[in-house]
Amino acid sequence: MTLEIPAGTMKEIHLQGEQAYPEEGAGLLLGKLDGDRKRVLSVVLLDNQREEQARRNRYLLGPGDYLLGEEEASRLGLEVLGVFHSHPDHPNLPSDFDRDWAWPVFTYLITSVWSGKAGESRAWRLVEDRSGFAEEPVAIVDP
Amino acid sequence: MPKIRIPSPLRTYTDGQAEVEVHGGTVAEALEGFMSQFPALRQHMFNGQGDLRPFVNLFLNNEDIRHLEGLDTSLQDNDRLMIVPSIAGGRGKDLPAVDHSALRTNQAFIIGLSILAFVFDAPWLAGLVAVAMAIGTILGVPGFGFIYKGLLKPRGWVRPEILHDNPEPHRFAQGLGAVFLVAGVLALFAGFPLLGWSLVWLVIALAALNLFVGFCAGCAVYYWLNRLRVPGFVKSPPDQTFPGMRPKAKA
User: Fold this and answer.
1) How many beta-carbon pairs below 8 A join chains A and B?
2) What CA–CA distance (Å, rounded) separates A142 from A48?
3) Is 0.80 surpassed by the pTM of this model?
4) Record: contact B89-A94, CB cut-off 8 A
5) What ipTM, to 2 d.p.?
6) Rounded to whole angstroms, what are the CA distances from B234 to A54, A85, B166, B177?
7) Domains plus CATH for chain A?
8) pLDDT of chain A along its 143 residues, tens only?
9) N or C: which end of chain B has fewer CB within 10 A?
């Protein structure tokens, strides 16, 4: 399934990753599922809830963050499609830690931030038996 | 009947329903009923040991059940149990801290004593080195690490160099060295000096490659076996590190 994401929204995600650098930034992707299309229509930028020493290689969004995302989604008539987070100075591949904590169905959009500058983002989805991730192609669309 | 509220990533498994009614007098019973209704959910909610995964939060009427009686919390007819995700992740797991100064001290002693054994034609000394390496491998420490730990480090003569690294390949490398050295010593005692000393020199050369170049040949073999998915060789090389080379990330 292709993840469609407006250029401006992608920019917002990259900017947040750059601002959080050298720590990890994260947030929720809101949008609509239309058959084979996964359209991101809004994002919720959130604070990394991990303790300060861990924020360079870990992120955490707590239950309160998720509920905030669901509230915002229902206000906009959307649903929570997944999560985005940054990997400072690291490839945009999901780690074993990402896999251990992954929810099924959710899209995990990972952005590499190299020396403070956002690079490419790639989207991943946990495979059903939790053994790894399958890549979801990302299409940047004009709003 | 109590209701369970389902978060969006799990609705695929509940035919798109955001809320379902459940039976059960406790949270545990309600969950069990819920799981038997939608069995594909189980592996995402519970781990292999049957414990709730750490990222699954359950709120009973907006209160985390961890602050109530956990899974034993009782449920009333109009209760609403919410499954609320915690979302976590992050780039690669931090590898354990490995003190490379202890490893290097070990290599230096292996090299030094083995050369002395050759120079003075003392196979027993090479045998002693092999025994130290074998004991170290069994205990999971560098064979001559005790000299570093007990003398060199406390006196400040050798400074620790603590890197994020896998300890297992180093242990394997030392074990491999011990096997070569034992074979060499046995060959020496059996009257095959050329074969015996060649094996001793092989160990010296590989330890020197590690000490001076930072390339651990035994670790490279370990990672190679890992790539071939040989059981027991579960660790893969640290990120952005050539298999066997000393990693760069300081702990």
Assistant:
1) 99
2) 29
3) no
4) yes
5) 0.89
6) 25, 27, 10, 20
7) 2-141 (3.40.140.10)
8) 899 999 999 999 999 999 999 889 999 999 998 887 899 999 999 998 888 877 888 888 999 999 999 999 999 999 999 999 998 878 788 888 888 889 999 999 999 998 899 999 999 999 999 988 999 999 999 86
9) N
